[in-house]
Amino acid sequence: MLFPLNAYLLAVVASFMTTLLSLPIWRRWCRWAGLVDEPGPRKIHHESIPLAGGLAILTGLLLPTLLAAALLYFQNRAGGMHSPPPALDTGSQVTKVLPLLNSRAGDLLEYGFSRRSINLVAILIGAVGILVVGCLDDKYELRARTKFLGQVLVAVLVAASGVRITLFVHSVVFHYAITILWILTLMNAFNFMDNMNGLCAGLAAIGALYFGLLAASAGQYLVALIAFLTFGALMAFLPFNFPRARAFLGDAGSNVLGYLLAVLAILPHFYTPRHPRHWAVVIPLLVLAIPLFDLAWVVVLRWRKGLPFYQGDTNHLSHRMVRKGFSPTRAVLVIWLTAAVVGGLAFLIAG
Q1: Closest by CA position to 251, among listed 311, 307, 187, 203
Q2: What is the pLDDT of residues 38-82, one digit of tens each?
Q3: How far apart are CA 287 and CA 327, in angstroms?
Q4: Distinct helix (H) and strand (E) counts, the chain
Q5: What is the largest CA-CA distance in the chain?
């Protein structure tokens, strides 16, 4: 099996197993810490459910990443680093360089880590920061402005690290503004979608898989690995959350997923000098179309009613499907399928 396919499969398996093994530990810790969702009049569960999803998913992302970085560091100290040819940094097709990659996989991965180390460190610190803010919100119900401030600070950190949206506009102020707005939008979109068992995590898994495949097909190895790590962690969590929940994401988990998907939408180079396609900006919008549409729908409805946009209600797509006669499980499955089909259009656009 040749690099990079073996590295991608290893990423999925490593994050899957890490999340699977850590989730029972986090469930027990959440019960001990009182980080649980208690039953209530508007809830369908009849017992307290640990809010362990975000903790387990981020563990599945962080531990394999840190382990891989440590192994590459010690390999570099033992044998020295050999930088890959410049041509490999242009997003060229993987199939043209597979024989070379197979013999220099470690060098290529270390080159990716070193080239984007600041980006990667900022992304991981931001994920931990969002998780902490979310856990505090789950535990103590933070004020909206306090939670919003924490989200903004994390988004600013990511933008300052160089992970920014440009949209072909030559203005650093615009780059910062649109990046922060994008990250905040996705965090709230996935937070809104966390209204039925499995819905938010399933949509995030579909999005992570698509971003991983798109990055892999363009030879963007490190971006693809981050996406596949996220996908593997989510696939381990889903059986604990769907169709019957033994663990919830909570605000911590849903915000972390929105944050990760926002970053995964920014990192890939959909536009390159070799493939100058300005319309490629629609690719991440298609991959994330369902949570974005649902967010826009409920925000407009709440605005028309004179309600704060963050005030919860039952006007989400999933709620409306249930009122139309769908069972919650079937509604979630239909929304997953729709997201997979719409996201698949991204591959047609990407060529």
Answers
A1: 187
A2: 876 556 666 899 999 999 999 999 999 999 888 877 776 666 544
A3: 25
A4: 14, 2
A5: 65
